[in-house]
Design a protein that fits this description.
With 443 residues, this protein is of the alpha+beta class. The chain has 2 domains: 94 residues, Beta Barrel (OB fold (Dihydrolipoamide Acetyltransferase, E2P)), CATH 2.40.50; 297 residues, 2-Layer Sandwich (BirA Bifunctional Protein, domain 2), CATH 3.30.930.10. The chain has 12 helices and 18 strands. The chain has an 8-stranded mixed sheet with strand order 6-10-11-18-17-16-13-12, with helices on both faces. β16 and β17 form a beta hairpin. The radius of gyration is 27 Å and the shape is elongated. The N terminus is likely disordered.
Length: 443
Amino acid sequence: MMIYAVSPDWRTHNCCEVNSENDGIDEVLIGGWVQQIRDKGRLIFLTIRDPKGICQVTLHEDRVPKDVWQKSKTLSLESVVSIKGAIKADPRSKLGAELIPSMIKIHSQAALKFPIDLTKKKTQMEIDTIFRYRELSIRDPEISATMELKSIIASAAREFFRKKGFFEIFTPFILTASTEGGAEMFSLDYFGHPAVLAQSCQFYKQAALACHEKVFGIIPSWRAEKSHTPKHINEFHQIENEIAFATDQEIMQVQEDLIVYILEKAAKTASSQLERLHRKLSIPSKPFKHLTFVEAKKKVRDLGVESDPDEDFGSPEETALSEAFSDPFFITDFPTHLRGMYYASNPQDPNITRSLDLMAPEGFGELSSGGQRVSDFKTLKKRIKQQDFDLDEFEWYLRMFKYGMPPHAGFGLGFERLVRWIANLPHVREASMFPRTPEIYQP
């Protein structure tokens, strides 16, 4: 753990360094939050937490300086302290050692009653409480482990694409028109003009192909859906990708390679986080299994779940289908009427698109959607009209297809959904530090 204290009088060691291996070190200085207090009268046990771990501090009234004892008596949970002292091995301690303090500095005295039990010794936190006090609940070691794992996954994704020669892009969040259709947009006023928050960066990553050929980004998106399923939040990120001269088959291989790379990286570098989350990873074999849309619908019905053959997969269908697999898999060949205007049709059957969804196993469901895109100006214009969109709203998007657009393919993979699956979380909102749902819009 890096030391960020601006003064050496605040912290020189991490809490996790207070262990039996360091028994006999004359003095160390730690800094952190008071996670637990056990006051036995003339004996006080403190558990101090920092982002890397915890340590036990033991105070005997007759063995520590008077001012140290007096300060320890005033401490409350989540107060921020620096403590100087000697490390002493103690087999009775769960950590194998304790810190005997010679100095305590209280940087911030927390309010007397902390609203959340971070130790979880009394009870599991209620889910509403977790998000009502989200600025406090993120201190929970399991929640912080999720956020650390999320950072590792993001780093692994960026590393993967850069090794493959992709260029990272950063696209606008304020748009003049929907990219995904429907009424799932957050509208806003942009200096007197109507605008919306981006549902995806689809149009912009397609435009970027003319100068970069292979692009990716971890891009924020917003959908004004009043969904209450475990896989929906209203503000999220997508791992976006687009490749010039690629096909739907090639982007399936990219996704396979990406998922395996991320899982292998997480298994190697996030072992402590995965342990805190009680999650053991298995690396799937390549290639992933493929089912066509028709085959997947039949399998859902075989599993005893009602399913309309002409409609997209609802949550019960998706969950049942996903639970039937132990590794990720693809659903391909979605009907044209279920896909966006920019998806290319199968040359042999215009009612079927060259599109696909990547599904996580274990009931976690859809991770990504993607496929081969329309690259012909006339075809795209026709598709926009067929979906009853206003051509004027897509003027700039159509214009770039007049001036040389190669065949291309890409996908958008739900970043929080990926974290939810890897971390084995009950709900995707738990994969966001500060989630946004129809009911949650603060803190």
